[in-house]
Amino acid sequence: MPKAKGKSRRHKYSYNLNRKRLYRSARRRAAPRIACSHIRHAWDPHKSVAQNLAEMGLAEDPNKAVPIPKKLLGMEVESDGQQPGKKIVRKPYVVNEMELEASLPEKKSNTLSRDLIDYVRYMIQNSGENYKEMARDEKNYYQDTPKQIKRKINVYKNFYPEEYKNFIASLKPEKMEVQ
Q1: Which family does it belong to (predicted)?
Q2: Nearest Cα to 95, choosing from 107, 103, 84?
Q3: How far apart are CA 20 and CA 154, in angstroms?
């Protein structure tokens, strides 16, 4: 196979290029990646990370923000009650918005796929509690073992207990009519 063109060419070093300046300007332009939208909107790119976080009332170093008490270290030191280096928070709304967002209840996002629900209902409808028969069923496309089928049914029971009770209750009259 032939070589790609330009690969064997000798690369020349440019002595006139100031690489330190290029690196420094690229580093200055790159802003930190911020995940929280509240912090991102209040961020000032002309200030340092420490200055931005201090203005928002956030800690740059959590170890310094919440120090280990001297009592735990074995030494007891009395303090006069004043905290040295108290900083002014200029953007308290950032912390307030983050606390409000954290206090909201979490949405339940645990649901089962419609295919799995239909599969479990079909298996229960045709075989009842006989897991070995379910494993031999033609609709068992994934060739689940009886234990795997039982586990899927238990997951369905735990996710949708009311729906499962109603489904089982609706199956009982059908079985009485058949007999």
Answers
A1: Belongs to the NOP16 family.
A2: 103
A3: 63
